[in-house]
Amino acid sequence: MNQYLLPILSIAIPTIVVIGVAIYQNKIKKLSYEIVLNTPLVKVSSKVKDKIEVYYEKNKVENPQILIIRFLNNGNQPISTSDFEESIKLVFHSDVKIIQCESTNLNPDSLSLNFNHAKNTITIDPLLLNSNEGFTLNLIIEGEDSSFTIIDRIQGVNVKKYKEPFFIVNDWIYLPIAFFASFVWMYYFTPMFQRSYTAEDTLLKLANVPMYAFPTGILFISIISIPNIYRFFRKRRLEDK
User: Fold this and answer.
1) 69 with 35: CB under 8 angstroms?
2) pLDDT tens, 28-48?
3) In order of start, what are the domains of the chain with their CATH numbers?
């Protein structure tokens, strides 16, 4: 291998990786929602279902459902009120009636959240959400179909359902991969495992081990940082504090 190629690759490869990760993570604006809970308010056997009636404020309710939806700015850029062209709307099926809607788990506690609901629509007014800030809506709805459509007009953002990163594992799993990659790199692309004829050659190789392993070390750090970046910018599932 050309004597100048190794130092160039030792700098170029980690630099490209780091810049690539930085570009990927740069100025990501996101607003996601997560359905934390979607279940009937009362679970009864089908044999006695017709014999049980549910009332809310003295009004009979058919098929009441509990629906908990969590919203999160899981990007790394703030979403300001000026980004909103229109309020966010959650529109349920026409047969669905929203009985109750309240907000919980505001993050931060001082978050200014204003919303209202009509028969089957919830309207969320424009608000400031910094990175990792969010809120939760607790709903009681009447009707079997709890699906809804989100209508939003936010600059640079589409409100989407949160998706778990498809590949997140514990960092230690990457360790043997890093050792293997370092071995392959040093065996084929460095003189580390070439035969030494003098003690001076051996000492020189040992002294250069950090430089030989530098590219795979940086690559290892970059790879394990990707799942951690996902964890940092996403909202964890709702847990009552």
Assistant:
1) yes
2) 788 999 998 898 877 665 666
3) 5-26+166-233 (no CATH), 32-156 (2.60.40)
